[in-house]
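INTERNAL AUDIT FORM
Audit reference: QA-55
Scope: verify that the stored structure record matches its stored sequence.
Auditor: D.O.
Record contents follow.
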Amino acid sequence: MSDRLPPIQNMVELRKGVDADLDAWLLHCITQNNLEYLINPHSNASPEQLRFMVCLDEDQVYIPCSDVLFQDLMAPELTQGLLRGYLVCWKVLVRLAHQHIKDPYIRRTIFQFARRQFQGTLHHHILIPSRLMKRLQNIFSSLTGIDDPYLERKQQYNQRAQAFLDSPVLESLLYACPASSLSCARIKDLRWELDLLELQRLFMLSSWVDLWHEDTPNILQAREILAQPCTEFDRLTDIFGPDHPEPLKILYLPNASGGILFDIRIIRCLLRMGHKVILALKSGFYFQTPTIWDVDRDPVLAKALAGAHCIADSSLGKNALLKTLREHQFVIIGDGSQERCNLYRSSVTFARAWKEADVIIAKGEPHVRRLIQTGHQFTRTICCFHRDERGFHLHVKEKPAHVHKHTEAGLRAKAGQIIQSMREAKVQGRRPMFYSAIIGSIPGQTKTAIRVVTAFVTHLRANLRGAFIINPAEHFEPGLDGDDLMFMWEQVQRSGLLEVWRFQTVADVEKSFELLDEPMPAAWIGKDATFSTGCTKEMRIALDMQREHPEMQILGPPPEHFFRRQEYGVGLYHDAGIVAR
């Protein structure tokens, strides 16, 4: 590897266009780890989807690993740390093969094939160990046809954990009154202190693997663990405490079977406090980690999750997700992956769940490495907890101050303000008109589109003094994706107050550039509202509203010219079909 690579101490410093050698190395790293969206769009998240979860500028690059591991990847020679990670992957494969493959021929085939992969990895040392594990795992699964070799082990862990949860011992450990008196300036403070104490005990028990790895866990040791002071839990007061104005949406990322039963008890505690929880399970086999399949195949887990609503759709839209969260307090989704936390491989549903959440609770050291021990910042506050040889640890990484979450309530409030303006306009004798136009449907032309629409609406307002014209471009805000905008505008459009709904025509676009005194770019030639994904959705709404209010006028291209656009690409303002071409 070239010694000309600039020193990078923190992955947040990774930016394209600064150093040609670094750009080449980053492209090599991303492609070798099979994380490049343009090469594999069906498996990898788009840059826009990644920005739902990771705070990234246009020129920033996200690498799904810790800062320490990234330094190992950039090193000119294979480091001991990276070698240890690779050897762990190899040993796991060998153990899998010996435990689950009886045919020596198939076992030898797997070893020889995997050895060639492994030797190439050692030579180039550019693979993230978890990506190597995924490749070796795929080799095992494809050659054996075994979809989950850990199924029985996971069920056994869950049975042991449930047996402990059902035992009288748990009652004494979990619900014993604290030895010291709690402060009680307000009843809600006392209630929170009791909730916090229960959460603290559950967090600690949830991270102690002996409870499900052994048939008879050491109860005395469990008491000692719970008796240990842990000031780190004070951070939870800032997130969930009594002064928080409203219930939160929480995305919960578990770590291992057995512990998942304690995680569910934590979730039940959070539900009792009024919060909503989305539990993200793996979408396929990943060793001891619980999967979405386990909900159907493990009766112990199924019973523990009774009452939770399971979402099977991996590409759920915003409206559908919000509707589900309104109807269900406890929701289960698949994260879209079969590996250690890798946001590149997350599903659209997972990315939207992250975006709708207020806080992420992630358990286990792998999550700590990926989410805490990295310079990357994330769009939501992250609370990670795990146990190691030094004891229990809880980490909180706050979302950056500049990150603003567009909540459902906030979007409804924005819509409500516009609706109120429409009512006031009608009282004044003005006719509310909505102007549907291209905003983001031409990739890379959003800023131009806003100028085009604003110029034309200004022209209309000057000539149609009796109309109250709503210009969607005036309410466009960074951070809103297509589904956010549609959610907000649908409240306005279905208010029943619109009297005229005008859709942008080719003539409107031509007039707009004339008003701007600019030549029309080639990308805009022949474009009108029928090219827009949002306008297509809005035409459907307009036709619905016209059936309810026959006096409402629809102006512009005829409805039959629409409907070639279907759904937004996630995080985009244009059709998903455009992204793939």
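Auditor finding: record pair retrieved intact. Residues 408-580 form one domain.
Action required: none
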